[in-house]
Amino acid sequence: MRYIPNTSEDRQAMLNSLGYEKIEDLFQDIPEQVRKAAVFDVGQGMSEYELKKHVRALAEKNQTVDQCISFMGAGAYDHFIPSFVDQLLLRSEFYTAYTPYQPEISQGTLQAIFEYQSLICELTGMDASNASVYDGATATAEAANMAVAATRRNKILYSKGLHPEYAQTLKTYCWSQGFEVEEVDLEQGITSAGQAEEKLNKKDAACLIVQYPNFYGCVEDLEELAKKVQAQKALLIAVVTEPVALGILKSPGELGADIVAGEAQGFGNHIAFGGPYLGFLAANEKQIRRLPGRIVGKTRDVDGKVGYVLTLQAREQHIRREKASSNICSNQALCALAATMTMSALGKEGLREMAETNLQKAHYAYRQLTSLPQVKAVYPGQAFFNEFVIELPKPAGEVIEELRKEGIWPGVNLSVICEDLNKCLLVCVTELRTKDEIDRLAERLGGVL
Amino acid sequence: MREPLIFEISKKGRKGCYLPPCDVPTQKVGEMIPEKYLRDKKAELPEVSEIDVVRHFTKLSTYNHGVDTGFYPLGSCTMKYNPKINEELSRLTGFARLHPYQPEETAQGALELMYTLQKDLCQVAGMDKVSLQPAAGAHGELAGIMVIKAYHEKRGDLKRNKVIVPDSAHGTNPATANMAGFKTIEIASNARGEVDLEALARALDDTTAALMLTNPNTLGLFESQILEIAEMVHKAGGLLYYDGANINAVMGYARPGDMGFDVVHFNLHKTMGTPHGGGGPGSGPIGVKKRLAEFLPVPTVEKADDGSFYLNYDMPDSIGKVKAFYGNFLVMVKAYCYIKALGTDGLKEASEVAVLNANYLMENLKKTYHLPYDRICKHEFVINSKNLKPYGVHTLDIAKRLLDFGYHPPTVYFPLIVEEALMIEPTETESRETLDDFIAIMEKIHQEAIDNKELVVNAPYNTVVRRLDEVSAARNPIIRWKKDE
Fold first, then answer.
1. Please, which residues have CB within 8 angstroms of residue B259's CB and are 6 or more apart in sequence?
2. What's the CA gap between B400 and B466, in Å, rounded?
3. What Rg, from alpha-carbon coordinates, does chain A have?
4. Judging by beta carbons within 10 Å of its beta carbon (0-12, 13-18, 19+), is residue A278 exposed, middle or buried?
5. Coil, helix or strand for A207?
6. pLDDT digits over B3-50, tens only?
7. What pTM does this model have?
8. B129-131 and B208-213: which strand pairing?
9. CB < 8 Å to B46, chain A
């Protein structure tokens, strides 16, 4: 009976009204062999109280970032989320609705998406944004797809500074479509402009994908790269995994990016063991009709009142079927709503303040850590926002293990990503870390080295 | 008055967010970041106070219709009740406050939950191995078709470049096949609304990579010849892909694995009661038979001999990753809670009542509306408004008129093979009274269409906006707010 209102009397009466005796009569169209085999076991149902106890026990087996001092980022950023955000996400008119197919009764979702698109355009400096996609990694893959369609070339260049999981996702998508993928190396932590130019000069690349700031924290010179890319009629795709950085850094649009893809989890969405997050995808005017996924537009109703609708649907799978720009048919609406509410609450000044606090705290941490004699800055002199790489005298895994016992998660171990970084740690400092916590990290790190 | 855009209520100096202080010794910004990288103009975010934001979004929420607002018989979408306990439990800090790269030893509860969910989904679908990584149904389809591609490639069977889909298929099926580099072959359905075996036989050859099928199909009809279909496809060297959008119809009565399917995706946001969120986040795990397990996305969650759980990246033939990290974890928590609450018997019962409710609606609605395929349906069915055409009333008009009575309309104009289609899926979480009320309103609208066409074709009247001009929205797209406007 769980969540089912019809009583057994209701059900019998309904069956009888249809001329059936028992419920199994409604499944006679399934071959007997299939029906007989369809036995499964997921255990006995639990009462609500039992379920609560059981699931709480599972949650308690985990250690949260609140139970330690965390300096972990690498594509999942722990930023302040105002309390009202989650309370509003629980307005069931938002979370129990489907995709806004019937605009007259979906104006809440539609207007919120329109505001989201506007905020993403402001942040990235682009003309158009879609309603969001699954995450930053798939946004990157979709952006590459757009570049192939726009240039009719099918080689994708990406910088080694792209988040490794994004690069893996990109490679999977490209393999399945038969696109070529080539990596451009880093020089002192940023994309090698020389190597990029060399590869671009072959005139067969659809795009160059560069993360900004990149996976290792360094701020890339997008402007210089944009010139080299566009000289060869390819597109520059900027990828942003830490959107808070755009509160202080020049927007990729201003620096010449054609498409900006990225992850907006940092606004209002918990790190949540990796998901759900939301990918954003924004482009300049020329690429609007190549954007995949949902897009909301402003219009008027028969009485002349302003309203919002899903628009430019001729790009999409339910109309174009195999000729669609992508197979995506949803967005991360609720995550986008959380991001919209958080960006609105931060506002023009708050975003700048948040970005500056990240910058100051990360640079303070950098100074404290690299002043330890055993710790080396890996990319000295490169500009960074709230993440940086340090090298330790011993394997990072051992150091993490030792500090963990003291309640400190000092950063992400880069050895699992790259063998030549085996003693390296990617340290992230957001506005949530205090001076005392940073000092404690420096002190304890000094203690275990 | 309609709520303005958040930008339109902005006032200089207002703030809705109170950040932790900057308590470290500071440096000049220009010393940390070279001037050429610094914004000289702040992004035009709105300046609003906390109460402004809260009232704004509260107001917007009242412009929406959700499952909690009223009946939502949107075919193919399984708009069942979303249990509140699942919302509460997915918000536990022990789940929401975990970093994806934290050491596995510190996330054992999360990994155990994922491991059990993988196992349970295998049970429900009769599959051998599940990956939880895909973020949505269409994403699962893409991952699943990639697995099929990798399988053929590994065997050196490189000429298999075609995917067959019936003409009743979801639009995502052909779009997915195309995105995975395949050519799509569409085959017509037969008079019973099922796959036409002769058309299938003609389409099958040594270039067939797979057949993509939904069963029950989008007409809500069970493909009764499914075992023959599976045999034909396998004999030709192809694989069978199961679009799991409609599993809510058959839990405990038919498992894709037993029907001969090799790959299946689940829509946890349909079958397992997780909310749709106004378009997402969903979750679209895929399940496969043993011979395809090695191709699944990395990582899968495994259990070690000592009983601990870990992420397994050691899969050399994996297609790789289809997104960052491990999937929409918090959605998985809700689906896990749902499965554990219902248990084996509860899931079966959910399908039974979903099918009963659909047949009850169908039998009653066919008294007024035309039912093109008149036989037992599963969890949904398709009627049409053909007999109202002489009165100048179309399916769209009926859908819009339903809005005035507080209903979300059915899916309209899909599947494409039924003219003026209305695709109706009541789900198991609706009472007989709700169904009876809906039938009465559908009959009333039918009569209105005959007696008073204008009333119906100009509907709706009671909504926050009325029919919107979608044509000019697409022709002259305004898709963002700009400061000067």
1. A34, B215, B226, B227, B230, B242
2. 9
3. 25
4. buried
5. strand
6. 999 999 999 999 999 999 999 999 999 999 999 999 999 999 999 999
7. 0.98
8. unpaired
9. 344, 347-348
CA B138-B143-B149 angle, to 5 degrees, is 125
Burial of B291 (0-12, 13-18, 19+ CB in 10 A): exposed
CA–CA separation, A173 vs A167, rounded Å? Answer: 10
Side by side, which strands form the sheet with B239-242? B129-131, B286-288, B263-265, B239-242, B208-213, B162-166, B183-187
Alpha carbons within 13 A on the beta-carbon side of B51: 0
DSSP code at position A220: P
ipTM: 0.98
Handedness of CA A41, A47, A52, A57 (dihedral sign): negative
Q: Which two tokens stand for residue B315?
A: 């899969």
Chain B residues 212-271 with CB within 8 Å of chain A: 221-222, 224, 226-227, 250-255, 258-259
Asked whether the beta carbons of B52 and A352 are under 8 A apart, the reply is no
Tell me whether residues B16 and A95 touch, CB distance under 8 A: no
Q: Which residue has the tokens 């996400």?
A: A89
Length of chain A: 449
Q: Which residues of A touch B321 (CB under 8 A)?
A: 137, 165, 168-169, 172
> Which residues in chain A have their CB less than 8 angstroms from residue B240's CB?
none
Helix (H) or strand (E) holding A137: helix A136-151
Asked whether the bond before B216 is cis by omega within 30 degrees of 0, the reply is: yes
| Rounded Cα gap, residues B66 and B242, in angstroms | 28
Tens of pLDDT, residues A255-284: 999 999 999 999 999 999 999 999 999 999
One-letter amino acid of A312: L
| Ramachandran category for residue B28: left, alpha or beta (phi over 0 → left; psi -120 to 50 → alpha) | beta
